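User: Hi! I'm working on a homework problem where we have to compare a predicted structure to a textbook description. Could you give me the structure for the chain below?
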Amino acid sequence: MNLKNLKNEVLVQNTKNLIKEENRILAKVLAHFQEIEARKLYLELGYGSLFLFAVKELGYKEASAQRRIEAMRFLKKTPEARPMVEKGDLNLSNLSLLERVSREAQATHAQSVAALNLIQEEPTSAAESEAKLRGYFKLENKKRVVRIEMDEETYQLWLTTKAKLGEAKDAVALKKLCQSQVEKPQKKVRQAPTARTAGVVLRRELLKQAGHQCQYVGPINGRRCENRHFLQADHKVPYCLGGKTVQDNMRILCQQHNVFAYKKGPGTG
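Assistant: Happy to help. Predicted C-alpha cells:
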C-alpha cells in the first residue's frame, strides 16, 4: 500500500472511512464476546474465565482483554450504547469506564443510561470523565497510588518536613505542602523583552491567557489543538528574527506544534 502519492484531503477522508469500519468491527467483536460468555464457550475450551480465553486464545494483552470484557458487559446491560459505538460516538475506554463506575455504584438501568448520556455531553479527558461519573453516582474520588524513589538525604528532608507540618501520614502532609505552594502569593518580576526565553511570571500569564491549552489553530479547518500537556511559550515572530519576549509576541504551543511551527516558518498556526 503506497500512501505517499495521496493528496492530503484524500488521505484524511480514507482514514475517516477506515475509522468508521473500525467502529463497526469493534461493535461486532463485543457482540461476539457477549455470545461467547453467554454460551460459556471458554469453559468448554478449557479456560477458567473469559479473561483467560481472551488473553491466551484470542491473543489480547491483559489490559486490552479487560477493557473489551468491561465494554461488552456495559453494552449487555445498556443496549442503548451499541449504536453510539457503531457510529464512533463512544470509544472503548469510555465503555470500560462506564462499566466499572456503574458497577461500583450498583446502578440501575435508568442510571446507566443517564450516565451514558452524561459522558456524551462534551469531549473530556479520561480523568475528567471519571470525575464526572463519580460525581453523578456520588462515589468517593478514586485514590491514586504513586510510588516515589528517593535517596536517603531526600527521605530525611521529607521526614523533617512532615514533622514541621504536624502530619504523620504522607498523603496528608504532601497535600498540605502542595497547597502551601499553590496558594502562596507570587512576586511579579519584570520580564526583559530582550530575554531569550519567557520567565516564570510571563509564562504564567501566557498559560492563563491560553486557558492552559495549546493555541495552535489549523489553517485549513480552523480547529484548535486540545493538548494540555508539555506546553511551551513560543515567539510568534522568532527571537532570531528580532521578535521580542513580550506577551503580545508570545503564544502557548504544545511541544509537537512548537516543533511543527518552527519547521513551517513564521506565521504558522
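For your comparison, note the following. The CA atoms of residues 28 and 143 lie 34 Å apart. DSSP finds twelve helices and two strands in the chain. Good luck with the assignment!
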